[in-house]
Amino acid sequence: MRQDWTSADFSAALLEWYDRHARVMPWRIGPAERKAGVRPDPYRIWLSEVMLQQTTVVAVRDYFRRFTERWPDVAALAAAEDAAVMAEWAGLGYYARARNLLKGARAVVAEHGGRFPATREGLLTLPGVGPYTAAAVASIAFDAPEVVVDGNVERVIARLFRVETPLPLAKPELTALAARLTPAQRPGDYAQAVMDLGATICTPRSPACGICPWRDPCIARAEGVQAELPRKLPKAAKPVRRGILYLARRADGAWLLETRPESGLLGGMLGFPGTDWTVEAPEEAPPVAAEWRDPGGEVLHTFTHFHLRLALRVAELPETAAPTQGCFMMLSPAHLPTVMRKAYDLVRADQASATGEVQASPSKRSGKTTRRR
């Protein structure tokens, strides 16, 4: 730490900045409200932190509003049907988070009388809550002086102290430095302030150092290397997996769907039947006997650990066709996860082109579910 700045100086400068420039979030109690004695709702903080894992604030806002309108407290969420929660989550990605939300809500109701544990240690006992989420909820909801370190905080601290160790190797060092700055007073506001600083001022590219409240003690800025930090180890190339999706539409307009297994990617979500996703080219495995055709094109999607390329097969079924075992029929499929929605949009566009039907623009055929806050 720079000798001319104490930890109290750091927190005072940052909190003064935060009081003027705090981002407005639907789950956040602003600085003025906190000073007036309004306390954050632990349920809303927990829900937002789970949603924000690997996901941007922009992507989460509308989901958060819908969730809290439909399930305004932890008891309501605990009583929700699994399928309803999974459907409401569709498109947000990382679907294990939705399953853990339900498990966590039910644990809070069954084991804690409907009240969230107020400590990091207590929060760690909830399903799906790891060290970062436990620290964030304890700090923001209960004003516990926990060290909250996300990607934004890592970047700020790496520049502030010019940490040259590349990520992820630098994580312990950055956490220790962040702990030295975490104040006992207003730790919840401080935690949010550092994240806001990284998201709005100390950004990955072209940081706005001239208006940063920590510009004077920042070692990287003083030495002109702020844009180079934090350093990162080269990422390993992602493998490519392949699969086939089968999209069958009955004469009455209903589509053949299945509920995916609870474990694994897209667990518990609606989807079209298909093959496993493997490195080797998959073998054909149609779910029903029909005249399957290739509509051309493929769905491209990127998950955290691999790229996915899905070939498509489409078929028309007679109105008397019954769903096969494990499948069901649905008119106008809704609440599909993004990769399934891409397949549906591509096939519907193909059908509209063949019939001359006016069709809304389909979603992009490629994209990623990996996001950052």
Your description of this structure?
There is one protein chain. With 373 residues, the chain is an alpha+beta fold. The protein folds into 2 domains: 7-228, Hypothetical protein, domain 2 (Endonuclease III, domain 1), CATH 1.10.340.30; 240-355, Nucleoside Triphosphate Pyrophosphohydrolase. It is built from 14 helices and 6 strands. It has helices spanning 7-21, 31-35, 42-51, 57-70, 74-78, 82-89, 96-112, 120-123, 131-142, 151-160, 171-181, 187-200, 219-222, 338-355, and strands at 240-250, 254-259, 270-271, 298-302, 307-317, 327-331. Strands 1-5-4 form a 3-stranded mixed beta sheet, with helices on one face. A 3-stranded antiparallel beta sheet has the order 3-2-6, with no helix packed on it. A hairpin with a 4-residue loop joins strand 4 (298-302) and strand 5. Helix 9 crosses helix 12, helix 10 (151-160) packs across helix 11 (171-181) and helix 10 (151-160) packs across helix 12 (187-200). The protein is globular and about 80 Å long. 37% of the residues are buried. The model is unreliable at 358-373 (pLDDT under 50).
Keywords:
373 residues; alpha+beta; Endonuclease III, domain 1; Nucleoside Triphosphate Pyrophosphohydrolase; 2 domains; 3-stranded antiparallel β-sheet; 14 helices; globular
Reported by name, the CATH topology of the largest domain is Endonuclease III, domain 1
Rg estimate, integer Å: 24 Å
- Let me know the average pLDDT: 91
Count structural domains. 2
Report the uncertain regions. Answer: 358-373
Order of helices and strands: HHHHHHHHHHHHHEEEEEEH
In terms of DSSP E residues, the strand content is 5-15%
Strand arrangement, major sheet? 1-5-4
Q: Please tell me the CATH architecture of the largest domain by its name.
A: Orthogonal Bundle
Structural class: alpha+beta
CATH superfamily of the largest domain: Hypothetical protein, domain 2
